[in-house]
Write a structure and sequence with these properties.
241 residues; alpha/beta; TIM Barrel; 10 helices; 12 strands; IolE/XylAMocC-like; Sugar phosphate isomerase/epimerase; isomerase; isomerase activity; Xyl_isomerase-like_sf
Length: 241
């Protein structure tokens, strides 16, 4: 059964420090978190140990991994993190086959360095990766050119872009350890809170069971800056437990 986490960016506007936010997450039925920033690493490590929260991975910018690889990886590995995710690449990287291949080369190089340390690299999509070049999504071209890189498929952004999220999961299941469960509104082409959009939750549950995906991760960028977001994550993701 998949473990359930919340991407902490969903509560990034809270004034509390990360350790305090983790305490609140631990009071819910969520199994863990996915990080995107770090403060007071020792406090966070202690809080994770005390609350028994799991860690799905961490979002780290590609430039940080390229320019400060050892420092970046060492800091996050203090928390037992072995899964690194590049959360964003500018749309300019998806304009042509050449720009996509160049991005793939950069990602593959980092993936190789992480692999030497027993860690893995994944790429998280938004909507701009679903432009088409020669009847193929840019994301598909990236995946073809960077086979060493896992995919953290964001279902909401994929659906908002007009792609079929569940088909993508089935196509890349062997490269998906982390799945962002975000809903979407087909009419507006924008993400939505889980359970309030057009995402086929039953279908998601089915493919997760079929392909034994390790982590389902709640994320909602437009969430209010209150702990209601954590509660909603726990309640809405209980569908998959």
């Amino acid at each position: 059964m998949a473990q359930i986490a919340i991407q902490l960016y969903s509560v990034h506007e809270l004034d509390d420090d990360t350790a305090t936010i983790l305490e609140h997450v631990a009071e819910t039925d969520l199994d863990g978190v996915e990080f995107f920033r770090l403060d007071e690493a020792d406090d966070i490590a202690d809080t994770l140990d005390r609350t028994d929260l799991g860690v799905a991975g961490v979002h780290v910018g590609l430039e940080s991994l390229e320019d400060n690889f050892a420092e970046t990886v060492d800091v996050w590995s203090q928390l037992g993190i072995e899964t690194f995710v590049v959360p964003w690449a500018d749309p300019k990287h998806f304009e042509t086959h050449e720009t996509i291949e160049a991005l793939a080369e950069r990602l593959s190089a980092i993936a190789a360095k992480l692999d030497q340390r027993g860690y893995s690299l994944h790429y998280h999509n938004h909507d701009h990766e679903f432009v088409t070049l020669d009847d193929e999504y840019a994301l598909e071209i990236l995946a073809e050119n960077a086979p060493e890189v896992g995919l953290e498929l964001d279902l909401g952004w994929a659906g908002a872009a007009g792609a079929e999220p569940l088909s993508l999961v089935e196509s890349y299941a062997d490269r998906i350890d982390l799945l962002h469960v975000k809903d979407y509104d087909t009419e507006t082409g924008s993400p939505a809170k889980v359970g309030e959009g057009d995402l086929d939750l039953a279908g998601v549950a089915s493919v997760v069971r079929e392909y034994d995906i390790e982590w389902l991760i709640y994320e909602y960028e437009d969430a209010p800056d209150t702990y209601e977001t954590v509660e909603h994550a726990s309640e809405s993701m209980s569908y998959f437990q």
